[in-house]
Each structure stands twice: as structure tokens, then as C-alpha cells.
């Protein structure tokens, strides 16, 4: 229902995004994930017709966003990074103005705004001035605005940025609910956000597409890469020598613990085997006590760090 094909945007000599392609199917929640500056807002601004691409195309329900902008835009509700709110209007006045701008027939406006306010739980705030609302409620008004006109596709650029944890959960719940009736695309630079809400993840980094796959597949794909956490008390060199005896283990991270001569390692396990017992006996033999040994699969968070260099810095 949305095809993004070979999208490229250049600012001067700088590529904000380069050759990005993906597609969105009906009825799913998609996450566009990437560190700050990756090109998320640029991609969304092009998809929604706010800015032009340098090259490439976006087809929405069969309509080219550049060539048939009016038809294509009817299918999309968009909440940009900076919500287009009129602070001196009440919630009702603002949504009425949006309905007017979007060409919702007069006879339908009242009931549509009523429905939308119910959906995002804003009804009891309808006569408040937008400037007097909390950040969480302002964001709901921003989302409400996308729903006016009942578009099939809702695109939200970092909808939870700047919210407190309680508001984040509320907005997440709301997004899940929107996913029941709409195709949703949300962007975020926080992976846990996407993992919690989205069916499918498109990851971009430095303007390039890194991976596009279901949340489930991404987790499966990297499940093989287990991590072992191990704390050992003894001479660092001896500990490292023992670890070298296990070719399938590589040291991903090492920290000195607060206790004297205690080192905490994160080991990557290359072959999915469970080395805990072997390590236990080998370290015991060497007279080096292990204070901790535990196994963990890679979380989506780790995967994100792995495939976007930014996250590692
Ligand atoms: P994100 O939303 O993922 O943080 P953006 O799409 O905002 O990333 O930005 C992608 C890249 O494009 C960044 O390097 C940014 O500096 C650059 N960029 C974005 N908008 C402009 C602009 N109007 N002029 C010049 N460079 C821009
Ligand atoms: Mg952005």
C-alpha cells in the first residue's frame, strides 16, 4: 500500500538519505528506527509530500506523492517532529480548523471530531487552550489531528520524544490501538520503543537502509549470538589466558569491578553452546573463583547497537 523506491535526498553535497527502499503493507505497525541524524524525519517528510526527494519515488495506494499529491495525501495523516499546533486555540477549535483544511464535509465535522477525541481520550480537554495542556496531552492533540479525515495510514515522527515514562506508556498504548484500524509508521531512535509496539522494523543509519524485517525475525536472526557474563577474581592475564582456551568465546567487553582483582567480562558465544559448566571447572582448576556466570540472548537493543555504529560510540 506504500512503496518507497530508491529514495535519495541531497542537501548540497551531503546525502541525508541514499537509495532507501521499503514497503508498508496494510494493517501493520511499522517502526522506522535509527540514531539521531540517520534520516528518519527526511524520509517521513518525503513520504508525506512535505519536501521533495532528489530522486526516487513514493507510491501511496497507487498514487505518486509528487505527481498526484492531492490524491496520495488523502490516505495519510502525519504528525511531524514539531507538531503543527495552534497554541491559542482550544482543542476543539483546532481540530475543527484541521477538519476544515482537510476538506471534511461540514455535516460530518462534528461527529468526526467527537470520534477522534474519544479515540485519543481528549474529550474532557476539548475546551482547554492547547498552550495550557501538558506535553502528553499536546501530543495527543497532534495525533488526533492525523486522524481527522480517517486516513488509512498514520505516520508519526518520534511521537514519544520529550514525554515522561507514564506519558510514553499512554502514547504507546494509543499507537497500538490505532494499529487496529490503520497502517501505522512511527519513528524512534530508541529500540525498546519499537520492539514494544511494532510488527516490523526498518532500520536506517547515516542515510542508508540497514535492515527491514519483522520484529520477530530480527530477534530470531540474532538469537544465535548469545552473550555470557562472567566475573572472575584473580590476575587479569591468567583469566584472559583461560578464556583464550575457548575459541568460540570472544571478549566483547571487560570492566574492572569495585572489588579488588575482580573483572567482569561480556563474552560473545559464536556456536550457541553453553560453556558455563566447562568454564566453572576450568577456573576452579586454576584456583580462580568465578563470582558470577550467566547467559543472556541478545536483545533487540543489543542488535541495534551491533548494526548501528553510532550506538557503540
Ligand atoms: P533524523 O530524523 O533521523 O534525526 P534527519 O532526517 O533530520 O535525521 O536528518 C538526516 C541528515 O540530514 C542529518 O545529517 C541532517 O543534518 C541533514 N539535514 C536534515 N535536514 C536538513 C536541511 N534542511 N538542510 C541540511 N541538512 C539537513
Ligand atoms: Mg528526526
What is the number of strand segments? 14
- Oligomeric category: single chain
Helix content: 25-40%
Class per helix and strand makeup:
alpha/beta
Mean pLDDT: 91
N-to-C span: 37 Å
Largest sheet: 6 strands, mixed
Contiguous helical run count? 12
> Which consecutive residue ranges, at least 5 long each, have pLDDT under 50?
none
What is the fourth-level CATH superfamily of the largest domain? Answer: P-loop containing nucleotide triphosphate hydrolases
CATH topology category name of the largest domain? Rossmann fold
The top level CATH class name of the largest domain: Alpha Beta
Q: How are the strands of the largest sheet arranged?
A: 6-7-8-3-9-10
Q: What can you see in these coordinates?
A:
It is a single chain. By secondary structure, this protein is an alpha/beta fold. The chain folds into two domains: 2-214, 3-Layer(aba) Sandwich (Rossmann fold), CATH 3.40.50; 223-297, ACT domain (Alpha-Beta Plaits), CATH 3.30.70.260. Helix content is 35%, strand content 29%. It has twelve helices and 14 strands. The strands form three sheets. Strands 6-7-8-3-9-10 form a six-stranded mixed beta sheet, sandwiched between helices. Helix 4 packs across helix 5. The two termini are 37 Å apart. The mean pLDDT is 91. The structure holds adenosine-5'-diphosphate (ADP) and magnesium ion. The site of adenosine-5'-diphosphate has 10 residues, from helix 1. This is Putative ABC transporter ATP-binding protein YxlF. Residues 2-231 form the ABC transporter domain. One of its GO terms (molecular function) is ATP binding.
